[in-house]
Write a structure and sequence with these properties.
Shape: elongated
Strand order of the largest sheet: 1-2-3-5-4
Largest sheet: 5 strands, mixed, barrel
Structural class: alpha+beta
Number of domains: 2
Order of helices and strands: EEEHEEHHHHHH
Strand content: 15-25%
Low-confidence stretches: none
Distance between the termini: 50 Å
Mean pLDDT: 94
Length: 215
């Protein structure tokens, strides 16, 4: 009998397979980014439909197959249902999922990236945090978490408050990452830096980013 494993993580993407099944990608604390199949997830009234949706965060019960895992059950702690009616927030969240999927690998230690993704999606649904700031912080901290942060560009002058915000983003633990606010000038510079780092280190085109830029 195949051994069951339990993994804590967040669903990054879900794809229809056959008539009623789903193929999902989960970023997990234990195994990094994994692929899992869920039989019957798309059947009417299936209890697995909601747990295999993107953003679902919790514990997943899995059986290891030859090339992928098979999902048998899940205990979801956060569905982030607020994003169903917040289209701008949902698009931003999908961008975060796509970005995290790009940067993570199976059997890698992806605990910090999972924490960053979870806290960033939580920040999106908080009404007191500007989503533009959430995006800038996520883009910059992703580079930091992956050990690629190059420092502040020396060919451009930034406001002292921008340097202070960057220092917080770089040095802060993820649980306290979204605990500050900035004015429009600083936000503009942080967004510039986030885009600069993304274009430098992420050599791919993000479909979700197209939608955000159009919105």
């Amino acid at each position: 009998m195949r051994e069951q494993v339990i993994a804590t993580g967040m669903v990054l993407s879900a794809t229809p397979v056959n008539d009623y099944d789903r193929r999902i990608v989960i970023l997990t604390k234990e195994f990094g980014k994994i692929t899992a199949f869920c039989r019957g997830a798309r059947r009417p009234n299936s209890k697995m439909l909601a747990v295999t949706n993107p953003f679902a965060f919790g514990s997943f019960k899995l059986y290891e197959g030859k090339n992928a895992y098979n999902l048998s059950d899940a205990d979801i702690s956060f569905y982030f249902e607020e994003l169903r009616t917040d289209y701008e927030g949902a698009y931003l969240g999908m961008y975060f999922l796509e970005y995290a999927s790009y940067y993570t690998r199976e059997n890698n230690d992806e605990i910090m990236m999972l924490k960053l993704l979870f806290q960033s999606v939580r920040a999106i649904i908080k009404p007191n945090i500007d989503n533009r700031l959430v995006r800038a912080v996520f883009e910059i901290k992703t580079i930091v978490v992956n050990g690629e942060y190059p420092g502040v560009p020396d060919n451009r002058t930034f406001l002292p408050a921008t340097h202070a915000a960057l220092d917080h983003i770089v040095r802060s633990d993820i649980e306290h990452l979204y605990t500050f606010a900035v004015n429009e000038e600083v936000l503009t510079e942080l967004l510039f830096l986030g885009e600069l780092y993304r274009k430098r280190f992420a050599d791919r085109h993000f479909k979700s980013l197209e939608i955000i830029d159009m919105v």
